[in-house]
Input
Amino acid sequence: MGAALPKHDVFQAIADPTRRQLLKLLADGEMHVTGISEHFPMSRTAVSKHLRILSDAGLVKQRKVGRETRYSLQPEPLLELKHWLSYFERFWENKMVALKHYVESEEVDGQ
Output
């Protein structure tokens, strides 16, 4: 049988701003839940719930070190998000090109 599907998908997992902050924090390296909790104005239990959702989506890995649980970022699932967003880059690129032309034309007119 194949691997079980994640309980949460990447899009659900990153929808919450706290979970996005957690991912940024873990990008700097592995941390234990107490150390992570110090960065947030919420209980350690609330932080653990957010970490569980990220773990369910495959974005965070946990491992036991003695009595401590340590968490680390697993960025591979973010590729799904990157691929989805890349479709829309063409719209951003068009806006940036138009802005560049506008700014350059204003500079020429203003000289």
In short: The helical segments are 10-14, 17-26, 33-37, 44-56, 78-86, 89-110. The chain has six helices and three strands.
